[in-house]
Amino acid sequence: MTTHRISLAELERGTPFEQRHIGPDAGAQAKMLAQVGFGSLDELTAAAVPEVIKSAEALQLPPARSEAEVLAELRALADRNQVLPSMIGLGYYGTFTPPVILRNVLENPAWYTAYTPYQPEISQGRLEALLNFQTVVADLTGLDTAGSSLLDEATAAAEAMALSRRVGKVKEGVFLVDADCLPQTIAVIETRAEPTGVEVVVADLTDGIPDEIAERGVFGVLLQYPGASGAVRDPRPVIERAHELGAIVTVAADLLALTLLTSPGELGADIAVGSTQRFGVPMGFGGPHAGFMSVRAAHARSLPGRLVGVSVDADGDKAYRLALQTREQHIRREKATSNICTAQVLLAVMAGMYAVYHGPDGLAAIARRTHRYATVLAEGLRAGGVELVHDAFFDTLTARVPGKAADVVAAAREAGVNLRLTDADHVGIACDETTGRAQLAAVWSAFGVDGGDGSGIDELDAATADALPTELLRSDTYLTHPVFHQYRSETAMLRYLRRLADRDYALDRGMIPLGSCTMKLNATTEMEPVTWPEFGALHPFAPVEQAHGYLTLIRELEERLADVTGYDKVSLQPNAGSQGELSGLLAVRAYHRANGEPQRTVCLIPSSAHGTNAASAVMAGMKVVVVKTGEDGEVDAADLRAKIEQHGEQLAVLMVTYPSTHGVFEEHITEICAAVHDAGGQVYVDGANLNALVGLAEPGRFGGDVSHLNLHKTFCIPHGGGGPGVGPVAVREHLAPYLPNHPLQPAAGPATGVGPVSAAPWGSAGILPISWAYIRLMGAEGLRRATQAAVLGANYIAKRLEPHYQVLYTGPGGLVAHECVVDLRPLTKATGVTVDDVAKRLIDYGFHAPTMSFPVAGTLMIEPTESEDLAELDRFCEAMIAIRAEIDKVGSGEWAKDDNPLRNAPHTAATLSGSWDHPYTREEAVFPAGASADKYWPPVRRVDGAFGDRNLVCSCPPMESYES
After folding, report:
1. Quick check: 20 and 523 in contact, CB under 8 A?
2. Kind plus residue range of the DSSP H or E element containing 399
3. How far apart are CA 555 and CA 561, in angstroms?
4. What is the enclosing helix (H) or strand (E) of 188?
5. CA-CA distances (angstroms) from residue 818 to 461, 664, 788, 798, 866?
6. What fold characterizes domain 542-763?
7. What is the pLDDT of residue 335?
8. DSSP 514
9. Would the N or C end of the chain have less CB density within 10 A of its end CB?
10. Name one GO cellular component term (predicted).
């Protein structure tokens, strides 16, 4: 008997990561291909993908490496970052993430692989966690209603500007910004204001609103509390004057400071915004972090982004759901109040849990400790002859050292601490939760004052009074709900987190077949480096020489994404797909203006497009013109040509999703692009469906001028229950001068750029190692085969379901792209069973529903992704086929239209107890696919969304509190 000798090199390589990532193995792929009618993946994609878009050559990426090798590479990059205690401030602070939260939320796939809670019955855990977050924000800011997170503080402030204009009485005038606001916030506001015609005025409001500005009219005012300089001033005089002028007042506030300081709501503010980063969320070189916004009750129904509300289920029991603006962009499109789609849910959960774990007393103690360190530091500087600009402060000092600021900052760096170089004469110094005695000694040493050895700190502490103004000390209570008092021990907190996770359905339980959302494997190897301190603990404004590893990773990821897409330049700054859209459209706008064609403002958008496309276009100062979609799901070429001819010299850009939102490869995409280019316009290819293209076709080569990419879809950054996301923008060379840049980091973008769209120079840099690792693990061939497997999976499902449901759109040969749309409208007309009924019934079968009623009402859009194996694909298909048989029972009259397992779905464990008077059995209700010891039990029955919208409750107190 002879055996095949395996070489040492083969043994060292081990199992390729590609085989871990792609679900169906070779045998399973052969079965699937036979079902679809092809002999190989290459044959399938040759038939499915139009010849005119196919890439002529393979991707130029480094060869795939093993998981161990990639982790070693990432470790080497991490080691090139120098993490010093950063006392820079400006909205970013050191914080301790409680290990129970780090391990059981950030590192737990039950939390990070969940999808946005559009199916509330299987999202009750994360919805409760978000309600906690909203309560923290509402309580600490002293305002009635808070949303469930925005992207960062700067974009939250920009959203507040738009909200002020929308709800305020003054429709003209300027948006007035105090000069002591964070510089990145001011810059993002200016970026967002210019395309929409808003004039931003930055002024020193220490002594009030200048008369010459008041005379021009003011629709909104933004104040920072405490200021970027650290100053704590009483904002009430400015707020009162602003209200006399009819302006809406926004206060950008520090939540930790608000545990000690009077809340913005009590001070008179209408809106509060900020970041929850210092509530246990690592700095991550700038993100991701959960921004926040809270408002007075009168403005609650105008809040941008997501809002979690309390409602009831079919039994009248309390249940949570997303309220009001759940998918506003898909409903209101160009009339949407915001383009916010991706939020920062995973980080909002962490921040909310930080408050749950510490409670109000613990948070106040952290704030007092932080403040004491700042006061002792200040007293030591004063004793050494250093002049401090402000006497009242919370955690940040500004020292005046004429002509010596750079020397002091350099000396501090030598001593192991980063300070902020404000200008040639001033140094900023911020304390935080992690500040210790060694940092104080290093700062004193850098300023050349006595105490550089750390001696005398206790004496200074005993002799130094607090530096918070007495008239601004907080006197009311906050975080009174029991949830902020019950989980002090780690055991209690651990069980609370587990209990909430068990109420949810995430990828760790099973398939989430959402069309256009690409819920694929988020590999542990990709996730692991995110929590390394060398990536997590770096301040975004730290000196670039301390971030060599990060900058190398960023440059390599930009280059590899450019190669994958066929574009020339990529910016990673946009921290959501919607912000990538906005960035791309701003680049197009700037390009036309640079060419002397400012009249080009018309944006053509197919009727099937993602709703954020239209919302982003309006925010970029463009006029949306809708192009019809044909019955085959493709853009109506005749209508497109008519619109191009009609708008001629005004045409700015066509936004088109490819493959189309209907899940087909449009045959005429190159002709469409050429027609737009011939008319002087640009082509924006929405990258939402890039998972069907990677390795097969490149948008930048088949006609696109600009695309945004969703790293939280195609490139494996997890959805985290609704975020974080990263939405890089990729452009051809002629648009590269107009990419985002950043005022505090010249290396982050071109000097000719449109300004920043995110608070941090490279957006959510802390999660970029995930996508870098994915590309490095897969290599060019692995990425190509992943795309082919995704297309195979979608076509396999379409073929299996075709005898039972109508597949709405197909391309040549009856093939789809990476997703398929199943039409339930004929069945609804015949039987009364709705798309909602099918979606909720899938929960009883152990599945998250596909995307409902988008892009066509009454349909399900199904995307299996390449990561689901054949057994899971078959389990889903069998569930859908069984549900079709149940629909037939309703249609035949065997089950009543108003009393059947579809209409009553989902069924909870509680429905098994007590009386049973339904025409179907308990077993049919809860075990429709046969008994299973691993069954997922939804915690609530179908949620009544209308009740929740009529009775808007968005914080923790129980429903009984609102019965009156």
Report:
1. yes
2. strand 396-400
3. 10
4. helix 183-193
5. 64, 8, 9, 10, 9
6. Aspartate Aminotransferase; domain 2 (3.40.640)
7. 63
8. B
9. N
10. glycine cleavage complex
Distance, CA of 204 to CA of 177 (rounded, Å): 8
Angle at 828 (CA atoms; ends 614, 842), nearest 5 degrees: 80
For residue 288, whether the previous peptide bond is cis, meaning omega lies within 30 degrees of 0, is: yes
At 817-860, the pLDDT tens digits run 999 999 999 999 999 999 999 999 999 999 999 999 888 899 99
The token duo for 832 is 């009364």
- Span 110-138, average pLDDT: 96
Q: CA–CA separation, 940 vs 123, rounded Å?
A: 10
d(CA 190, CA 565): 30
Spatial distance between the Cα atoms of 572 and 714, rounded to a whole number of angstroms:
15
Single-letter amino acid, residue 7: S
The closest alpha carbon to 582, from 606, 557, 618, 625, belongs to: 618
Residue 124, φ and ψ in degrees, nearest 5: -65, -30
Residue 961: per-residue pLDDT: 42
Q: For residue 361, which amino acid is it?
A: D
Asked if 187 contacts 759 with a C-beta cutoff of 8 angstroms, the reply is: no
pLDDT tens per residue across span 420-469: 999 999 999 999 999 999 999 999 999 999 876 767 899 999 999 999 99
Distance CA 839, CA 793 (A): 20
Burial class (CB in 10 A: 0-12, 13-18, 19+), 243: middle
pLDDT band per the 50, 70, 90 thresholds, residue 654: very high
Strand partners, 571: 729
Confidence category of residue 171, pLDDT binned at 50, 70, 90: confident
328 pLDDT more than 70: no
CA 489 to CA 486: how far, in whole Å?
Answer: 9
Q: Which pLDDT does position 962 carry in this prediction?
A: 36
pTM of the model: 0.96
User: What's the pLDDT tens digit per position in 580-605?
Assistant: 999 999 999 999 999 999 999 999 99
Query: Closest Cα to residue 720, out of 20, 23, 105?
Result: 105
DSSP string across 24-59: S-HHHHHHHHHHHT-SSHHHHHHHHS-GGGB-SS--
Cα 496 to Cα 104: distance, rounded to the nearest angstrom: 10
575-598 exposure pattern, b = at least 16 Cβ within 10 A, e = fewer: bbbbbbbbbbbbbbbbbbeeeeee
CA atoms within 13 A on the CB side of 644: 22
Tokens 């076509």 correspond to 795
Q: Which residues pair with 684 in a beta bridge?
A: 655, 706
Q: What are phi and psi of 479, to 5 degrees?
A: 50, 50
What is the tens place of the pLDDT at every residue in 251-267?
A: 999 999 999 999 999 99
Please give the Cα distance from 745 to 566 (Å, whole number).
Answer: 27
Residue 437 structure tokens: 């005695």
- Write the DSSP assignment of 258-271 as a string of letters: GGTBPPHHHHT-SE
3-class secondary structure, 713: coil
Non-local CB neighbours of 44 within 8 Å, separated by 6+ positions: 33, 36, 38, 788, 791, 792, 795, 815
Closest by CA to 580, choosing from 602, 609, 612, is 612
- Per-domain boundaries in the chain: 359-405+412-421+434-463, 542-763
pLDDT of 268 higher than 90: yes
In this predicted model, what pLDDT tens digit does every residue of 468-489 receive, in sequence order? 999 999 999 999 999 999 999 9
Largest alpha-carbon pair distance within the chain? 98
> Which pLDDT belongs to residue 959?
38
In this structure, how many other beta carbons lie within 10 angstroms of the beta carbon of residue 453? 9
At residue 569, the 3 state secondary structure works out as strand
Spatial separation of the C-alpha atoms in residues 653 and 647, rounded to whole Å:
11
For residue 963, pLDDT beyond 60: no
Cα Rg of the chain, angstroms: 28
Tokens in use for 568?
């020339």
In this predicted structure, the answer to whether residue 893 has a pLDDT above a threshold of 80 is yes
